[in-house]
Every structure is written in C-alpha cells, then in structure tokens.
Design goal:
Chain lengths: ~350, ~350
C-alpha cells in the first residue's frame, strides 16, 4: 500500500492486517487449490462462523457469498418477492434497491423523502411482501435507528424485512432478529478489496424461496435452495472469490480479537471527534439534520469549498470522500471504519481545523 | 506461492507474473481508489483492449465483467433466451448450461452424448433461439473443432451461438466471428484467482436484449443494456473485483508480449509431449477416443491407479488433477496452460514414466 490513508467510504482503506493475510493466502496456494478440497471447505466454515459471531447473528440465520451488494438486491427480489416490495429511500443506495425491484417488473412501492431526511410515513402497503430499509445510507450519511427497525418489525410481523448493512456492519450494533435478510459488501467497513458480497437469510426466507421455486423460476445457481444445498456442506455452487473468503475470515477473527465492544466503542469515540470537528468548523455543516440519525461510520458535511478541502487533505496524503452524485462538489464524506485508528482520526480532525 | 506447481485444470497455477502485478496493484492502492475515478476507468479500458487483442475479437464484440462462468450461463439465458435454447453436452459443464436454462423455466433442449464422445446429431430444433456449445469441456478433456463451429454457424445463421471458452482461451485459436457470445472465468488458462468472469457479446446480442427488455424483465444491474451503458464509459454498474480487472489486464499484456503465435505453438508442443506420455504409458489411456477432439489444454486419461499416480506426483510437489465427478478415482487430468513452462511439462512427462 502507498503512504496514503483513505477515509473514503468505499472502496476504502484496506484493513491493516489485509496484506499480511493475503501473503499468507498466497503462500498456502489458496487461489490454486480446489474449491471442493477439505482445506477450502474448512476455510468457508471458518469464515462463516467468524462472521456469525462478529455480526452476533441469531440461530437459524445463514450466510451466503455473493459478489456485491448490487447482487444482493438482485437476488433478494428474484428469490423472495413475487409481486411487490416496499422501500424506504432517502439517498441514492436505498433508492437503487427499489429500482432493482422495478427492473424485475415488480409492482413495488417507495416511501421517498428528501435525501438525508427522516422517514415520516411508516405505513406499509398490504400487498408488499418485503420491506427494504437501509441501516446506513452511505451516500448521505443517514442511519436508521434500532428503535425504528424494532417498531417496523413489531408492526409488520408477517412481512419480510431486508436490511442493507453496507458500511454499517460490523461497526454498528444491529439486532438482526428484527430482520429476515441483510447484506453487505466487504470493501467498506471490513476493509477488503471489492468483489465479495455477504447475504444473510433466516429460515423464513428459505421457506418462501422453496415455496416460490415450486411454481416459478427464482434463478439458477444462486437460487436460495441451491445456495443452501451447497452452503450446508460449507461449499458454494460455483468457484467463488476464494482469496476474498479466506482474507475476510481472517479479518473477522482479527476484529473478534480486538473485541466487539472495543470496536464499537472506538467507532463511537471516533465519530464523536469527527462530528465535533464538523460542528466547530465555520465552513462545514452536517447534512443530516436529525442528530439521532447521523451516521457514525460515514460523516457527511455540506462544504462550500469541498474541492479545496479535499485537495488540502490530499497534499497530506489523506484521501477523504467527495459528496455522492449530485453532491460531488459541495459535500465531503469521511469514513470511520475499524481500520481507521484513533490517531489517524485525530489527525483528520486537526487538519479539518486548518482548512477552510 | 509455495514450491508446488499446480497442473490442476482450475483453480489452477497462477500466471507466473501474477504476484508481481498484485504487489504493484497494492502499491497503487487499486483496491482503495474509487471505481469511478479516471485511474480505474483507464484500467478497465486497458484490460478490455488487451483482452480484445489477445482473443482476436472481431469489431463490434464487447467485453463485460461478470464474476464467474456460472454467472455467464445465468445471464445469457436471462438476457437472450425467451423460450428455448439448444445445448450440446458431453460432459458435466456443457450439461450444466442446459440445467441453468431449465432452472429459468425455459423449454430448452439438449443433444447429449456419452461423456467425451463426438456429437452425432447437429440438427437444431426450429424453436431454439440460442445454441450452447463448449470449446473445451474441462471435465473430460473434449474439444469441439473450429470446423464444427463454422459449420454450425453456416447452418444456423439466424440463431445465436454461445461458446464456452473456459480453459480454452487464450490458449487455443478461436474464430469468434462464428459465435455471438462467449465467456470464460479467469482461474483457468489466464492463471488468476477465481472471482472474475468475462462475457463477450456482439451487436446481435445487444439488439435482442434491447428488444426483449421492452416487454419483459431481463434482470437489473447486469441486464445487457445496463452493462453496455456503463461499459461504453469503461465502467461497471457495481463496484467490481477491481484487483482482478487490474491484474487480468497486466497478464493479458504479458501474454501479448510473449506473442499469440508463440503462446499457441507452445500449447501445441506441450500438449504433444503430454499426449505422447499418456500413449506410451502402459496404465494410461486417453479418455476421448476421437484424436481430433482431444483437448490440448486439459489432458484427461483413464488411470486404474489414479490416486497412486496423483500422490506420487504430490510427493514431488506437483499437483495434477483428479477426474471430475464420477471419474474422480479412475482418471487423471493435467492442465496445459500458458503459465506452465515447457520444462515443467517435460518434468511431468518424465514423472509419468516413473509412476504406475
């Protein structure tokens, strides 16, 4: 890696042990051994177990490997939605999940509020089979609260709830019992290269997929019953991104070694520093107005001189993110992931004070 | 990498320059930079151009990045087949493409002959929109000839032809003008870690996908019109396996540097050595009886003592493949990919003489 430190919200800074694990994977010939070998079956099992522990998954929740969060949107709709899903959107990524449903010709519905604003209408259309929500809307730095998710679950016991935990897990505490399916990509908070997605599903998802499969097509190699058939043997239907599965498992174990409590306390501590730095800066203001809903992993601020700030940081070899999409030139985004040390975050805060 | 040399037909030995390019990618922060940055757009463009040259693609053929050949089967059916496809199968992988079509509820048909046998009936049902053929059936070491593909093209000008070039390209000369779409995964002849698939499509595929998209769903982020929309800008819809795209481009350039003619002549030379070693061995016999159809990249032989042979090789740190599926214990498979030097193949042949 270069001397630069990436505070971009994804692709992001690699986890600080990544290169070491990658070297070890190569010395073990992980990319050359058979994906059906006992060594690799053990690798899948270890990675899956480490992830379940790190994410504090309840019993009965399974983990499958996809290639991106985009694919998770695709497969969730394909496997689990017959006619309609309902989506909560206040930013680019939450909106995209709805777009994916429409692309599959579902008569899905959306409650869309302005970017970064709190949701005002929690009514779910009766025809919706699945509700799509986003724990951390990376594009604008909005976090849905655990209370909101719990209430949604309570009020909709019969519908599936799908939670996007991209750039949220494992940094934030998420009660997965409140949702039926969740997904993430590893190039955010896990600090791995892009190319692997994680799909979490519970028994209800399996039942629905099995039932739907008897009367319609829910895909081929990544139809949920097929993922389960292979997953039960700690295998994947296809030759997967073996290097990523290996290194993800090692990084998950490193994070468990650090300790979940410490990892999350550090996340809160660093977020507090970054938030204070934004608040005390004359040219910056938080984009998300509701304090309770401000992301702790993706700090997003309006900045008149965003480009100037970003380029000042770049001169110091610190890369912070631009705003997403239409906010590219008037926002900055700063990621706060497990790989970012307190010291490096303090450095970012000090630098922020210097630049206008 | 360890001292072992993998002659397994995939996952396989990494290309000998892979680690060097991987190190360079990490020093350039390829996994941390934005996948929308000019640096990465240039990377995609360079990789695509190198691949087009290496595969000698005709004008009007585009390359898109998927995650595996499994995904190519999935997307080809989803994008290009309304009702029916017709498949030629004489091994596990050619059969699987048909299974994928059936999983998507297509009324597809199959001409299936015994494993490794030549196809006898080239009649194509009139309702078939697409014909699936396999250049190199990796499971049994059967290669379809260029003449057979040319005749199929000539006799079926109005149907799409999809060619599986997994473990065939870039080692074998393939005339892509005879097919409309083709695909491969990089963990075979290209010598990269698994996790990237290459999908080649011509204008006819684009037209059909566009037309179908107006009346039905052909998927979401990897619907062909969406791949084209992003591909035309040298981008991908999602954050892709950036490390793989970077290293693939570098390896494709290395192969161009070696020279296509030399790479292919070497493939033929090494295949000749391996074939002779099989023929002169008292306990081995070629599985594919038709000499013209024996694979030059995947040498497959019946071996009464397959396990013993494989373990004798392993003691010398040379890993050769078992038979695929039901042939696991009574066949050996030896890959002949660009990363395998003439010297290492000579060593394999010498070792074969010693073991019974």
């Amino acid at each position: 890696m270069s001397n630069k430190i990436y505070f971009t919200p994804g692709p992001a800074q690699l986890f600080y042990t990544f290169e070491e694990h990658l070297k070890r994977a190569l010395s073990l010939d992980i990319p050359s051994i058979s994906h059906r070998s006992s060594v690799f079956i053990k690798t899948i099992e270890e990675t899956t177990e480490a992830l379940k522990e790190l994410l504090e998954l309840p019993d009965g929740y399974n983990i499958y490997f996809l290639n991106s969060a985009n694919e998770a949107w695709d497969r969730i709709i394909q496997n689990l939605v017959e006619h309609s899903s309902h989506h909560f959107a206040n930013g680019a990524f939450s909106k995209k999940f709805y777009d994916f449903a429409k692309a599959q010709n579902k008569s899905s519905t959306i409650h869309e509020v302005s970017d970064g604003q709190v949701f005002t209408d929690w009514t779910i259309p009766s025809e919706a089979e699945l509700i799509g929500i986003t724990k951390n809307e990376t594009s604008v730095g909005f976090t849905i609260t655990e209370e909101e998710i719990a209430t949604l679950r309570k009020n909709n016991p019969d519908k599936l709830i799908a939670l996007d935990v991209v750039s949220a897990s494992p940094s934030l505490s998420v009660n997965f019992t409140n949702v039926d399916t969740a997904y993430l990509s590893v190039q955010k908070a896990f600090g791995l290269p892009a190319g692997l997605g994680i799909w979490i599903v519970n028994e209800r998802c399996h039942e629905i997929a099995e039932r739907r499969a008897s009367s319609t097509s829910i895909g081929s190699y990544r139809a949920l019953p097929n993922l389960k058939k292979f997953g039960d043997k700690h295998q994947t239907p296809e030759t997967p991104n073996m290097l990523a599965i290996y290194t993800l498992g090692k990084i998950a174990k490193d994070m468990l070694q650090i300790g979940l409590k410490r990892l999350r306390n550090d996340t809160i501590y660093k977020a507090t520093l970054l938030n204070q730095a934004v608040e005390s800066h004359s040219e910056l203001e938080h984009f998300v107005t509701s304090k309770n809903h401000r992301s702790k992993t993706t700090i997003v601020a309006n900045a008149k001189n965003a480009e100037q700030i970003i380029s000042s940081f770049e001169k110091k070899e610190i890369i912070i993110g631009t705003g997403y999409g239409k906010y590219k030139s008037n926002q900055i985004r700063i990621a706060n992931f497990p790989t970012h040390s307190k010291e490096s975050v303090e450095m970012v805060c000090d630098l922020l004070k210097e630049v206008k």
